[in-house]
Amino acid sequence: MQMLRLYASNCAGKIKAAVETASRLQSTASGAAGHKFQTKEDKKEGTTYISMEKVTDSRGARKDDELCSLCTCNVPIKLTYKDVLILEQFMRDDGTVLPRQLTGLCKKQQLRMERCVMQAFWSGLFGDKYGTEADRAGYKRFNRYWKDDMSMYQLETKQRHGTWFYIKRYPTKNQQLFKNPLN
Amino acid sequence: MSQLWSKIRYGVRWNPAERLALATRALNLQKVKSIDISLDPLHHDNLSIRTFWHSIMAPKVRLTNPNVRVKTDIRNDRRAPFFVATLDDGQKLHFSTENMTAMDVIMNFNRLTGQPELGKAGTRPRAKI
To answer: GO terms for biological process (chain A) (predicted)?
Structure first.
């Protein structure tokens, strides 16, 4: 019995070590075993010591049945681009979106949030709060309003008769009568 | 979809390899006097320091300051690798690179030597030598 227990504990140790190495190989930011590392900077007598310290993730991995903050009923309706104050909580000061590891949203809601942020930019709801560097050249210089967060993938355009759309669709000035003049 | 989209999503795309490449481009040894690398080749976590070593020995980086003295100490104790960079103003940077990726090492190094963390993306003109 003693032997068995010893063996088991040895095994567990080995598995733990293997998982640790695997997580170390993966990336700095996160690990499979919940090990995360963070840069630590110490200044002592003209020397700056930079090392990685282990950070314990208080939350741990997400469970299967756990809902993200937008999937629960805290936010009763679907997020739209008009909910600027909610969107701002998922953004940096320079107007970019935080990654999913930081927002803690599920994949679906994260993508929806990103789409909404872009639509809010395009519809001018952020104003110049995040600077005017956002690319609003060409056809994007006009504010645009959206029906849905998926409507930016919509390819069909609705054509209305009798609008400017149909007026002067073809050039009328300085046109040759014939392509190859005979003379 | 558009420039706007990629600009907004810039922080979401986490591509460590791309970041490493850009950080390596930004390497500049102008303010560095010497670098003392010390590593155990049999230590499990020495890839990052070897990558760093490799990238500071690249000709383009060497040309930024040919007077940098790079000294290497290959040890045989299974201890963590580290390097010490001495700057022109007498400051020392002691990096213990265990658990760091090469990207972390080079980006921190750039930041502490007063360079931009990431270099410019895109094609570069050939250096005139």
So the answer is: mitochondrial translation; translation
Question: Nearest residue on chain B to A100, judged by CA atoms?
Answer: B12
* Among A39, A49, A134, beta carbon nearest to B94: A49
| Mean per-residue pLDDT of chain B | 90
Task: Considering only residues B11 and B79, tell me which one the structure prediction assigns the higher pLDDT.
Answer: B79
Task: Tell me which residue in A24, A49, A135 faces B4 most closely, judged by beta carbons.
Answer: A135
Which pLDDT belongs to residue A182? 61
Residue B43 inside a domain? The answer is yes
How is A154-172 classified by DSSP, letter by letter? -------TTSGGGTT-S--
Whether chain A has a CB inside 8 Å of the CB on B8: the answer is yes
- CA A82, A99, A40, B54 torsion: positive or negative? negative
Residue-range definition of the domain harbouring residue B27: 3-112
Show me where the domains of chain A are located. 64-151
Note whether B120 contacts A: Cβ–Cβ < 8 A.
Answer: no
Q: What class, spelled out in words, does domain A64-151 have in CATH?
A: few secondary structures
